Amino acid sequence: MKVIFVKDLKKQAKKGDIKEVKDGYAKNYLIKNGYAIQMTEKNLEVYEEEKQKHQQEQDTKRQEALKQKEELEKLTLLFKVKTGEQDKVFGSVSPKQIKDELHKKGYKIEKRQIELISNLTTLGYHQVKINLFKEVVATIKVQLVK
Fold first, then answer.
1. How far apart are CA 127 and CA 106, in angstroms?
2. Separation CA 143–CA 140 (nearest Å)
3. What are phi and psi of 25, to 5 degrees?
């Protein structure tokens, strides 16, 4: 029986693959657990339409991410921090603080999207990467001042 996989199945197939499998395996496991649907002309058409819609959504999200990248790269976030002797910063600026500052400016960025190798602990300018979408990364400037 030929089936169309609608979910990834570890070591078997990826979403969208069309494979020939044994009837019992298809009916009792793949179809029953929602990993695949039987390949018929109608199911193939429906699947192709869904695939096309999904691709259009992804393209739209990518365009929005590119626009947001342009806006973010013009932005400089300013953080006033307390310093001690020789301008050593008390504490640091974390991804959560950067996220909160971006939310205040109207950007919906999640903490997990902000890529910091380590927390910011020195005065001056720092480059911070923000993953907006697959392969769309914005770099913003963060400035720490007294």
1. 20
2. 10
3. -65, -40
Q: In the block, which residue shows the tokens 């603080």?
A: 97
Strand partners, 116: none
What is the pTM for the complete model shown? 0.69
- Asked if 103 contacts 122 with a C-beta cutoff of 8 angstroms, the reply is no
Give how far Cα 37 sits from Cα of 3, 42, 52, 89, 143, Å. Answer: 6, 11, 18, 59, 54
- Give the model confidence (pLDDT) of 14-64 as tens digits: 888 889 999 999 999 999 999 999 988 898 888 889 889 989 999 999 999
CA atoms of 43 and 2, how far apart (whole Å): 12
Instruction: Sort strands 136-145 and 76-80 into parallel, antiparallel or unpaired.
Output: parallel
Looking at residue 88, its pLDDT comes to 80
Tokens coding 74: 């013009």
Token code pair at residue 56: 């259009």
Helix H or strand E segment including 55: helix 41-73
Mean pLDDT for all residues in the chain: 89
